[in-house]
Amino acid sequence: MYQNSDEPAVSSIMFPAEKTIAEILAQRESKGALRKLFITDKGVDFCSNDYLGFARSPILFSMIEERMKELKINNGSGGSRLLAGNSKYAEELEVSLAKIHAAPAALLFNSGYDANVGLFSSIASRGDTIIYDELVHASIHDGIRLSRATSFPFRHNDLAHLEERLHKAKGNVFVVAESIYSMDGDTAPLENMVELCDKFIAHCIVDEAHATGVFGLGKVQELGLEDKVYARVHTFGKAMGCHGAIVVGSETLKQYLINYARSFIYTTSLPLHSLVSIECAYKLLEKSSEEVKKLHANIKYFKSMNFFRSKIKSGNKWIDSTSAIQSLVIPGNEKVKKLALAIQEHNMDVRPIMSPTVAKGKERIRVCLHAYNTIDELDILLNVLGKTLDK
After folding, report:
1. What does CATH list as the number for 32-52+289-390?
2. pTM value?
């Protein structure tokens, strides 16, 4: 039995590192950049990545429950995929997902973070080059840092700068972008990027996290570029409403990742319930054309409110986006926190995105739109934003 006590089990006084990390935390707090966990259980959702409402869907819940009844249920998977954690069901799901995404093969990972770290830390070797858009996700940056390859950023969506980088690249060359960028919500010029990759014999890799489900099965498939893109990462914790991720690409790439992607090899695999949730989410997506239409109608309506957008003061601006992510830049951590709190007081759940998550001076209110947001809710949010900014 566990013993309950109000006193800490071990005093932190004996650990010198505690003083060091406390000073580091105090320094971050002085900059208005200290991150804290908190629970929000009220307010209209303009914060989550549940774009189609799958995470809250009773239909998806029932589909998962029924499917689980058909299968043997375990609390956990029992180990890594290379030991006790593999199953016929997991392998069949990968075959199905590869077919859905028009790729030869797919490999499941426990999260989008795991997929990106595993892929980018292993795919390039010493003497190779990774060229990445400066705004790619932190998980991609972390994977690149763990690789032995030379790496260069290129200015966001700047094809001329990308071409400059490609001229200097050596070895096997990998060009990395997100189809929809997680903080700005804008779209990568994928058609032009794959043309450049063809020209320089480079491998294009696309993270589809914020496009999967929102733009069909992802922007790559929407544009018919499946054969031009070397690998894609699809995550399931956003529009798909569950958890996990896949890397899709060649069978050779899959076998390579099984052998060298450490975030795949050395982790307990997803349990059966997670796999069933992924399968059911894709089946629900096939029946969700109305939800997708509603989401895009909300995006169009939100962007059409020029009377509100014209009120935005100098120094603050909306980033141009046709996705579910609409970001209003409010420079300064304290300013953007204050604005977010003022909006939350009106029962609107929006969050500030502060530096260092985004570059200093690019702090913003990040509004996530959903199929379940109503026009009335959009109007209230826009009016509250406008009135708060006028103060």
Report:
1. 3.90.1150.10
2. 0.91
